[in-house]
Design a protein that fits this description.
The chain is mostly beta strands. The chain is built from no helices and eleven strands. A hairpin with a 5-residue loop joins strand 5 and strand 6.
């Protein structure tokens, strides 16, 4: 299983980016996929999660109302639309899959990880 993220980049505060994560290879299993981020010197934190069956979404308080997680099951792709970006959103963003815990924003619940895509907000 391989998770491949794309869509990161550099934007000014207030701007938008849309991240994508494509799953390649065997299915990951699990009931939930998510996005995490890690800023320099900080621990990785959960940003958003989606239950793959019914599409229920979950967000960290810091991104509610600004970020939207979605999925395209036909193309095995997970998205994170990020609006009203702030400098505090600067981090490496990771796609994660294989959680059996619906809505989890905890690293320990995920079995598969992408390599990350950098988001820089200035």
């Amino acid at each position: 299983v391989q998770l491949v993220e794309s869509g990161g980049g550099s934007v000014q505060a207030g701007g938008s980016l849309k991240l994508s994560c494509t799953t390649r290879g065997h299915t990951t299993g699990g009931a939930c996929m998510g996005w995490f981020r890690q800023a320099p010197g900080k621990e990785r934190e959960g940003v958003a999660a989606i239950t793959t069956g019914d599409g229920s979404t979950y967000y960290a308080d810091s991104v509610k109302g600004r970020f939207t997680i979605s999925q395209d099951n036909a193309n095995n792709t997970l998205y994170l639309q990020m609006n009203s970006l702030k400098p505090g959103d600067t981090a490496m963003y990771y796609c994660a899959a294989g959680s059996w815990v619906a809505g989890s924003l905890y690293e320990r619940d995920y079995n598969y990880w992408g390599q990350g895509t950098q988001v820089t907000v200035s």
